[in-house]
């Protein structure tokens, strides 16, 4: 569902919603009941777009049902219209989930009451069992599922869970390795180092596996078991609230990028050391003539600048950024970025370098215009 023609409600994902929930002191998460079944299609021209021919007769849908290709589009448009009176800085949409947020409990209650009245007018309702709120009078103690993570309301922590389909010691084949490799759901990259290590171990295990039977080598199984033991002992919770009340320089962020000949990563931090977002990249193995780490540094920096621009643009309404400090050991320098970029390359390597520099310059321009 990544397409420029999609409604804004479909362009938002788990990363955007989780970042929003970490911004505000008070949040309220709601889940609509049978949202796809409650989208009415009033206009005749819209009904005609969902028409079909069956048994020598023409039919058209007057209500969008789950499974109809246009149902997510109609739902997104309906929810955007539903939320139109509210400031975009105070809500996010993720399909049939609505997240409200504010630093003031009074404002949050007003948002909730206003949303309730608009939902009733549309004959839509929320599932009270899935309602989550940080307000003392509505909060439920214990751990609750939240967008693929666990939220512990007692101490306001977000916990990254692991769904181990197989124990590492039992991953003796490529089939079981596939299930084990997808055990860690960490959309914001809070534990990027662990997931990158797992990806490298899994790639090595696949490369060393028996081509005929698909069985893994004992040394690779041992390495996966050691990773699992260390990961289970790791504390996997982070504070939900990103910034403290008296934190200085809240609109300044820091981006760190680094790369080796095997992998690269970019991590976005606050100036007080809280991690916002991180992405890692496994470099393709290119035989004996593998590229060296310095040649990957520029690739990692250009890629990181791209997703940082997208991220900062998305959170601009509730978390505006005034300055971005980029720390990298890439061979590129500020003076080189200020110089004129040649438009002609005399080798494939020079062409790649020019393209990366242009991407970085474009990213800097986007940040300055935001």
TrEMBL record:
InterPro entries: DNA/RNA_pol_sf, Retrotrans_Pao, Rev_trsase/Diguanyl_cyclase. This is Reverse transcriptase domain-containing protein. Gene3D superfamilies: 3.30.70.270, HIV Type 1 Reverse Transcriptase, subunit A, domain 1. It comes from the Eukaryota.
């Amino acid at each position: 569902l990544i397409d420029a023609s999609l409604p804004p409600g479909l362009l938002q994902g788990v990363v955007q919603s989780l970042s929003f929930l970490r911004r505000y002191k008070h949040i309220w998460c709601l889940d609509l009941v049978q949202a796809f079944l409650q989208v009415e299609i009033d206009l005749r021209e819209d009904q005609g777009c969902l028409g079909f021919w069956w048994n020598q007769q023409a039919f058209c849908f007057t209500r969008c049902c789950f499974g109809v290709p246009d149902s997510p589009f109609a739902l997104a448009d309906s929810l955007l219209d539903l939320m139109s009176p509210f400031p975009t800085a105070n809500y996010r949409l993720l399909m049939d989930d609505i997240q409200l947020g504010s630093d003031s409990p009074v404002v949050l209650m007003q948002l909730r009451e206003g949303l309730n009245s608009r939902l009733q007018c549309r004959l839509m309702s929320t599932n009270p069992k899935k309602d989550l709120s940080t307000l003392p009078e509505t909060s439920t103690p214990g751990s609750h599922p939240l967008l693929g993570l666990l939220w512990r309301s007692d101490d306001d922590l977000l916990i990254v869970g692991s769904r181990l389909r197989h124990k590492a010691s039992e991953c003796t084949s490529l089939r079981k390795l596939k299930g084990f490799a997808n055990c860690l759901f960490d959309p914001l990259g809070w534990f990027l180092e662990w997931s990158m290590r797992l990806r490298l171990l899994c790639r090595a295990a696949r490369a060393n596996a028996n081509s005929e039977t698909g069985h893994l080598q004992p040394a690779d199984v041992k390495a996966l078991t050691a990773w699992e033991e260390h990961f289970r002992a790791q504390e996997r919770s982070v504070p939900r609230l990103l910034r403290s009340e008296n934190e200085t320089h809240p609109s300044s962020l820091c981006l760190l990028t680094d790369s080796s000949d095997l992998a690269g990563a970019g991590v976005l931090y606050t100036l007080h050391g809280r991690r916002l977002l991180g992405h890692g990249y496994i470099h393709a193995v290119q035989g004996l003539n593998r590229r060296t780490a310095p040649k990957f540094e520029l690739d990692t920096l250009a890629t990181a600048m791209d997703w940082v621009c997208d991220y900062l643009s998305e959170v601009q309404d509730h978390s505006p950024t005034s300055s971005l400090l980029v720390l990298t050991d890439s061979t590129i320098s500020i003076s080189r970025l200020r110089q004129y970029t040649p438009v002609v390359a005399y080798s494939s390597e020079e062409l790649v370098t020019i393209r990366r520099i242009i991407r970085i310059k474009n990213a800097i321009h986007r940040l300055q215009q935001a």
